[in-house]
Design brief:
The chain is an alpha/beta fold. The protein has 15 helices and 22 strands. The protein has helices at about 5-15, 55-60, 85-95, 115-125, 140-145, 170-175, 190-195, 195-205, 280-295, 300-305, 335-345, 370-380, 395-405, 415-425, 440-455; strands spanning about 5, 15-20, 25, 30, 40-45, 65-70, 80, 105-110, 130, 155-160, 180-185, 215-220, 235-240, 250-255, 260-265, 270-275, 320, 325-330, 355-360, 385-390, 410, 430-435. The mean pLDDT is about 95.
């Protein structure tokens, strides 16, 4: 990022400068003292379980050129005092964003945000030098740090925006100022806080609050709520599979065990796509990304070819085979919609037995028991042979599966016992799906299971 002097920063964040002449330059923005902060400015962020002010002295020792703080700190380097350090971080990011007249695609939605963001970056990279949100740093701390990674070589950006409550995406949008926006789907994630899917849609549409007046809005026409959206002010690009009136549509979809092949139809032309991940939900994400390419003038043949290079990130649909047993790890997060999507993927895979390991889904409020119950019923609909669940809320998933006719459905509240049970009964030819909310830490079960399977089947490390 470009260098700033302290007077410039103080003005941008509405702060009071202390111990400085104001002309001193800082190089970079930091919120973490676990890395060198050579001549950078350190923001003392405050959270439920941490207080950045406790690390101010350490930041100084690591070479910080200045510090932004809310309360008095004992350091000998310049300090900018503000009333809210998180807001100040975003105020500076918004100021910095103003230096770059580049296309910026904002991405939000109940499911598929990170995958869509990654695919959109691939599409745009065929024309632009593109930066994107790293991982899922999509909140008021992670997003501004992504904006600070823009530099003179950057030609486009793809920014993911997440939320739990009303107003959060509006805040992020006003900082990032999208020139195009994507909403992937309206599900039930965070319904505990927002009360209804209609309210969730209102919260997602806040992505337009900071968008340019002519920013295209890209929506899923197969979503029952998004399909009703009408705007007289901006272009709306609808994508879909089932709705034949979708402007961008997937045809001839062939889902394999580890890949998806289909055609994208746009204005009577068709483009062949090979996606090296399985699942209809990934096809939807590719359609959203392709639509962003349309909005930003990318060569569409190049856009279609770009999907070949897609690789899942984090704990999303990582597939590993041990002794003929296929493990599908999708443990970053879970909602009823994403669980359903992954069960459909599982049902399309060739297997001797299909086994689902589903953990608790959180932030579902009053709909929690019913949602878990329906996921159990969905297991039967999608040809699951054996169901294991993990967590108290997932007891309802077992009930739903058994009521729908699944004989082998079990619940566990112990990660150790679950891994042991799986290791005992898994056989070559089995395909196992793991899916749960991030807080359940289902990856610990997977790690333990892998060790047990390798020992059981004498697989070398």
């Amino acid at each position: 990022m470009k260098d700033f002097n302290l007077i410039e920063i103080a003005c941008a964040v509405g702060g009071r400068l202390d111990h400085a002449m104001g002309r001193e330059l800082v190089k970079g923005v930091f919120t973490d003292t676990r890395k060198p902060i050579n001549k950078g400015i350190f923001f003392c962020l405050e959270g439920t379980n941490f207080d950045g002010h406790d690390f101010a002295k350490q930041a100084e020792e690591l070479g910080a050129g200045a510090i932004v703080a809310r309360k008095k700190i004992d350091v000998e380097i310049p300090v900018i005092y503000v009333t809210d350090t998180v807001k100040a971080l975003n105020d500076l990011a918004s100021y910095y964003r103003g230096f770059f007249d580049i296309p910026l695609v904002g991405v939000t939605g109940s499911v598929g945000k990170t995958t869509t963001k990654d695919m959109t970056s691939l599409v745009l990279a065929t024309k632009f030098n593109t930066i994107k949100t790293q991982g899922n740093l999509n909140n008021s701390i992670g997003m501004p740090m992504t904006l600070f990674s823009i530099d003179e070589s950057t030609e486009a950006a793809v920014i993911e925006m997440g939320m739990n409550h009303f107003g959060e995406i509006s805040f992020l949008s006003k900082v990032a100022r999208p020139t195009a926006a994507i909403i992937t789907k309206i599900g039930t994630s965070h319904i505990e806080n927002l009360g209804s899917r209609e309210n969730i849609m209102k919260a997602k549409l806040e992505i337009l609050d900071g968008a340019s007046k002519d920013a295209p809005l890209i929506l899923n026409r197969d979503d029952d709520l998004l399909s009703k959206y009408v705007s007289q002010k901006r272009r709306v690009i609808f994508f879909g599979i089932n709705d034949r009136f979708s402007e961008v549509r997937a045809l001839k979809v062939k889902l394999g065990d580890k890949s998806s092949d289909f055609q994208i139809e746009y204005r009577s032309k068709r483009y062949n796509v090979h996606l090296p991940v399985a699942g209809m939900h990934n096809v939807y994400d590719a359609l959203a990304a392709f639509s962003a390419g349309i909005a930003l003038g990318v060569d569409l043949e190049a856009a279609a070819n770009a999907f070949t290079g897609y690789k899942p990130t984090g704990m999303r649909q990582q597939i590993e085979e041990i002794a003929g047993i296929t493990l599908i790890e999708d443990c970053y997060n879970a909602s009823p919609d994403s669980v359903e999507a992954n069960l459909v993927t599982l049902s399309n895979m060739k297997a001797t037995r299909r086994i689902a390991v589903l953990g608790d889904m959180l932030e579902l409020g009053d709909t929690s028991e019913q949602s878990h119950y329906r996921c159990g019923q969905s297991c039967v609909k999608n040809n699951v042979n054996i169901l294991f669940t993990y967590g108290v809320k997932s007891q309802a998933t077992v009930r739903g599966a058994k009521d729908a006719g699944l004989r082998f459905a079990y619940n566990s509240d112990s990660a150790t016992d679950l891994a042991r049970s799986l290791a005992t009964m898994l056989l070559p030819g089995d395909v196992v799906l793991f899916k749960a909310s991030r807080a359940m830490k289902l990856e610990n079960v997977i790690s333990d299971l892998k060790k047990k399977l390798k020992k059981k089947y004498k697989v070398s490390e």
